[in-house]
Design goal:
The chain is an alpha/beta fold and 364 residues long. The chain folds into 2 domains: 141 residues, Nucleotidyltransferase, domain 5, CATH 3.30.420.40; 174 residues, 2-Layer Sandwich (Nucleotidyltransferase, domain 5). It is built from 12 helices and 11 strands. It has a 6-stranded mixed sheet, with helices on both faces. Strands 9-8-7-10-11 form a 5-stranded mixed sheet, with helices on both faces. Helix 11 links the parallel strand 10 and strand 11. Helix 3 packs across helix 4. The longest helix has 24 residues. It is globular, with a radius of gyration of 20 Å. The chain starts with a strand and ends in a 20-residue tail after the last helix. Keywords: ATP-binding, Cytoplasm, Kinase, Nucleotide-binding, Transferase. Its EC number is 2.7.2.7. It is found in: Cytoplasm. InterPro entries: Aliphatic_acid_kin_short-chain, Aliphatic_acid_kinase_CS, ATPase_NBD, Butyrate_kin. It catalyses: butanoate + ATP = butanoyl phosphate + ADP.
């Protein structure tokens, strides 16, 4: 039996869970005051505070980490790579500490915290399917601007785990299936999976894809240029991840409140809610074309999938493409444990992080 401890640092919370193989035996989520986090100039400066928070949680719940086989952190700050499980070596640690990919996100703390515990308990530290997984097919990379190529930032961890689990429910291997997989939460990721690879998707950090509660989604370049005329560029960039979507329109990021207002007859909220779903459906349609219509299922995961209206609308619009299956919530903690168990049990090969972007451009 493998004992696995998983750590998932978020923007305002830290989630931890202890697994025996793939069975969760303990989990906890602690929220952090925004004022407290604001005291730290950089994300990596939060390391000691986050670790002390975890230590306190473990002590309060009489949880011992003695005998833990592996510590697994949400992988952030890394350069584009294939999907899989990677050991936290010196290079992974260095890139996580400084955010080598240029994206400052609390997921950078995942490898760092996992490494700290692994050092203390003489165990191994890993990351599984980090946010910078890049398995794009070549046709998905080219743009209409010379020297500018597409990349993706997606909820790779949850997307891949959802696909793996659904394939198992069909008594198939993930590598033998084609899926359109969506994560619909505070951010919305929509991706095409062919033969075990995530061959296309959207750069949700860069502003692609559908509108989301805090994200503007895809907008014409000319419209953005007009909007930028009297704006600070840093402020505009925040529209991609923090101040766009519902926040820009209504000043709130709570999807439940927006859907409730829509259901209650608020025309503005209804237009926003239904526009978001409409854009999700359009993106699902585009991924169907990527897969040439040969699709084993459309899978919906993430917190908003608890909303029956959202699921119903997507089914009504998209079920002609393939069966739609809802997986409300997320499997992030389970995904980190499962990926590690697959490697430790020899079912999957451990990957080594190269520290170089997977895609460096075409030869022409």
């Amino acid at each position: 039996m493998f004992k696995i401890f998983t750590i998932n640092p978020g923007s305002t919370s830290t989630k931890i869970a202890l697994f025996e193989d793939e069975t969760k035996v303990f989990s906890k989520n602690v929220n952090h005051a925004a004022e407290k986090l604001a005291q730290y100039p950089a994300i990596s400066d939060q390391l000691e505070y986050r670790k002390e928070t975890i230590d306190t949680l473990l002590k309060e719940n009489n949880i011992s980490l003695d005998g833990v086989t592996a510590f697994v952190g949400r992988g952030g700050g890394l350069l584009a790579m294939d999907g899989g499980t990677y050991e936290v070596d010196d290079l992974v640690l260095d890139h996580a500490v400084r955010g080598a990919n240029g994206v400052q996100h609390p997921a950078m703390l995942g490898p760092q915290i996992a490494h700290e515990y692994a050092r203390l308990y003489h165990a191994k530290a890993y990351v599984v399917n980090p946010p910078d997984v890049d398995e794009l097919q070549d046709l998905a990379r080219m743009t209409g601007i010379k020297g500018v190529y597409r990349t993706v930032h997606l909820h790779a961890l949850n997307l891949k785990e959802t696909a793996i689990r659904h394939a198992e429910s069909m008594n198939k291997k993930y590598e033998d299936c084609n899926f359109i997989v969506c994560h619909i939460g505070g951010g919305i990721s929509i991706s095409a999976h062919r033969g075990g690879k995530m061959v296309d998707g959207y750069d949700i950090v860069g502003g692609e894809g559908p509108m989301a509660p805090t994200r503007c989604g895809s907008i014409a370049v000319s419209d953005i240029l007009k909007y930028c005329r009297d704006k600070d560029l840093g402020e505009v960039k925040q529209l991609c991840t923090r101040s766009g979507g519902f926040v820009s329109h209504l000043g709130i990021s709570d999807a439940l409140e927006v859907s409730s207002r829509a259901k209650g007859g608020d025309p503005y909220a209804a237009m926003l809610w239904n526009t978001m779903i409409y854009q999700i459906e359009k993106c699902i349609g585009s991924m169907a074309a990527v897969l040439h219509g040969r699709i084993d299922g459309i899978l919906l995961g993430g917190g908003m999938v608890y909303n029956e209206d959202l699921v119903s609308q997507i089914k009504d619009t998209c079920e002609w493409i393939a069966p739609v299956t809802a997986y409300p919530g997320e499997f992030e903690m389970e995904a980190m444990a499962a990926g590690t168990v697959r490697v430790l049990s020899g079912k999957e090969e451990l990957k080594k992080y190269s520290g170089e972007c997977k895609f460096k451009g075409f030869d022409f």
